[in-house]
Amino acid sequence: MAHDAVAAATAVSDSEGAVELLVAAAAAESVREAAVDVLVLDHKGYLDAALARARDLMLANQGSAVVHRLLGELNYATAVRAACAAEAKDGGAVAGGGMGAMRSAAGPYLAVARDALASARRLAPNCVDVAAVLGDAFAASRMYAEAESEYRRALSIPDPSDPALHNATYGMFDGYEHERDPAFAAERVEEARAQARASYTRMTAEELVPMAVHKVLEAGILLGAAEGRRRGKLVAETFPNLARARYLEAYTDLEFVRGLDAAIDERPFLRRTLATVARAAAAFPKSAVLAAFHARLLFVLGQYDAAERECRRALDMEEPDDPRLDCVPVGSIRGENRGERLVSLACVFHELLTKILMCASDYWDSMSSERQREGFLQVRFDVLEHKYRKVDLSPDAFAMSDVRSFVEEHKCWRFWDCPICDRKKFMDSGVLLSHMCIKHPRAVLPRLQYLVDPTLSEEALEDGDFLGGVTFCEDPAKQDTICFNKTSDVFKWLFYAPSSGVGAKPVSEMREKKRKKGLMFLESIKEKMKTLPTDKSSTEFSEALPRIQELWHDFLKASAFDYLEAILGIARPFLWRELKKRMIGDPKQAAKWISATDIDAIFTKEVGPSHAEEDHETGDNEQVKIYMKVVYANFTFSQMIIENDLGAELDKLYIDPKIIDNNQESDAQVKGERSDATVTNTELTDPAINMAESGDDPGANNSI
Length: 704
What we know:
Elements: H1 2-43, H2 47-60, H3 65-89, H4 97-123, H5 128-140, H6 144-156, H7 185-223, H8 225-238, H9 243-258, H10 267-283, H11 288-300, H12 304-315, H13 338-366, H14 369-373, E1 378-380, H15 381-389, H16 400-410, E2 414-417, E3 425-426, H17 429-439, H18 456-461, E4 470-474, E5 480-484, H19 490-495, H20 507-530, H21 539-559, E6 560-562, H22 563-585, H23 587-591, H24 596-602, H25 646-651, H26 657-665
Antiparallel strand pairs: 1-5, 2-3, 2-6, 4-5
Protein name: DUF629 domain-containing protein
InterPro entries: DUF629, TPR-like_helical_dom_sf
Pfam families: DUF629 (PF04780)
């Protein structure tokens, strides 16, 4: 009997518990429906009414994470709208009073958002979605340490709850009820984590690193270049996945080298800087900013071939990163949009290519005729053929022995292929014309033979021989060699083309291109001849004939294949590299000291837009042809998580005014630095303000 009584009591208790659960679930669903009504109000534009309803709903249901999150989200969105409105009212200004107005407008809403979302976190501690939104509110309030903590928490919650349980936006519209399906809870958690990760990355790239860059550069000015270099290295180690941080390390290292004593050769120190930026450029292959710094430093060190390769690599980037995100100082690369900023860097690359060409020209002029000729303007057959095999792997590829046999037999370098049948080589334009009129009368009307003078070919091609002569000979090792005779134009002819990136092309491709051009001119001639009067004494005939003869002249020039042109296409890059190797290996060049003046001649001092007028050195930009492929696509950072404690690391970057005073009194100097490059031997301890927090007035944490 007693056992039955206990069982009955337990059944009643379980039944009452189930009822309570059902009642609680119904109440929670009723609160959620009320929250959805508030969201609908907001979507319809009744913003003030939505905020008021959300606050009343929160006060009536303080145990509900849903309503706290709702109130926080609505106030966060309102803060963003208020800041945008203040910015628009101030004419888009973001500095000084403009920024203050934005913060003042957004501050009260952000304070409510933080409190409400903090309450939601207390009620739903395992919700990734709540942590991510709270992190956004902290970041907008410039409370970066707190934001970082929430983002990290969102990414590391071990047993996360379903975001749909605490966010009324899931399933709020008819037909989207599946958004609350428990079977997809894991996907919703990953989406919330992705949002937190993206927000964390954006905050790091757009807020923390720019602040760190500013403080590091400030330290370099106030405490000395050595201290700036040390802090720049710290930032790079703290943010290894951001190009701007890695660039800062190289930038501050170069500033340190610039400050060395004038009696010291700066070349060894620049090699260290080069190693730093080379690693960064390899890690961020789409950063045009890093590529520009890398190429310029290579030029200063006299590594002209490597500098040119880096310029070409940058100009060939398919989707280069926006320079605004990488430049140091922040804002130093100007432009209304990404395309303009990339074009300004393209001008830098082309200017550097021009400088390389000018250095090569000066070096060429400084060489004696014997040095120019000896072992330099002579290229072995096997070398040319080896270079050619890199662009043409076909079994019947170009052979220099065949070229020599052709030239020795026909005493010329040129010939024509019939553009229609392509069966044989023609050395005489008259024979070519006769062949086409007989074999292809539909394409080339036979009457053309009586309208043009075949001897015109020599006149048409007389401007093709730029060199005084090219001969075949043997080198001392009895190897077949082609020799380029020295003339006044040899540098321009042999070496100017590589400066524009022109390289060798397969002979078959060159001949096919000429064949197609020839066909185009033949078609034009045929169309003109269709309307040509038969009466040679008529005015119409006299007016039409010169144009037909001109087209025949153009046909001969366009369709003639020149072996010399093909050889030059192969030899140019090879000889260009050889000339740069000689420049680099020249003992005088290697022994030359590098000074700050040499660095300053290539590296223009970059200034932020608020401190200087637009005087960026770009050379004669109107005359520079831009090759960079600019793609107007949105920039996205790769997903990453910084493993360091950002708050602790950024603490080390703060400059305490007391340390500045102590440093000014210190007479310690970096060995080899100029007298004005002083550094402190005092550790930067006990910073007054955490850089990851606001450095402004007490109310700044309530602002955007």
